[in-house]
Amino acid sequence: MRYNGSLKCQTLTGNEQMNEYGEPVAAQVSWSDPVPCSIKTNSDTRKGRYEDGEFRHASFTVLIEYREGFAAERVKLERLGEDLGEFQVLSVEPLTTVGRIQIIV
Questions:
Q1: What is the DSSP letter of 32?
Q2: Fewer CB atoms < 10 Å away: N or C end of the chain?
Q3: For the stretch 56-90, what's the b/e string if a residue is b when 16 or more beta carbons lie within 10 angstroms of its beta carbon?
């Protein structure tokens, strides 16, 4: 497979913990090491506007090499040196016949 970017998966640690006073402690967010991937744009527009500026509305299809038990809720994407952003995972589909996992964000 030809790679044109990388993907980092978000992991939460320390979820549902309490401190010595019985107060909940916020989960710590960390990111995995970059995983080489192939990124294809489904849609990308910068027409979104709000009172103080603009935002990017984008959707991508990402292919990575097959790995057992892949599960992620949020990912960061980078393609050809450009930071595409942080996205919620909409769909994860294993393509076992070709040894890939298709992720739609």
A1: P
A2: N
A3: eebebebbbeeeeeeebebbbbbbeeeebeebebe
Enumerate residue ranges in the chain where pLDDT < 70: 14-16
Rounded to two decimals, the pTM is 0.82
Sequence-ordered list of residues with C-beta below 8 angstroms from that of 60, at least 6 positions apart, any chain: 39, 40, 41, 42, 77, 84, 87, 104, 105
The helix or strand, by DSSP H or E, that contains position 46, with its residue range, turns out to be strand 35-50
Structure confidence at residue 64 (pLDDT): 96
Q: What is the C-alpha separation between 17 and 27, in angstroms, rounded?
A: 8
Question: What tokens appear for 57 in the block?
Answer: 């509305």
Tokens representing 38 are 């192939």
> Hey, what are 24's tokens?
């909940």
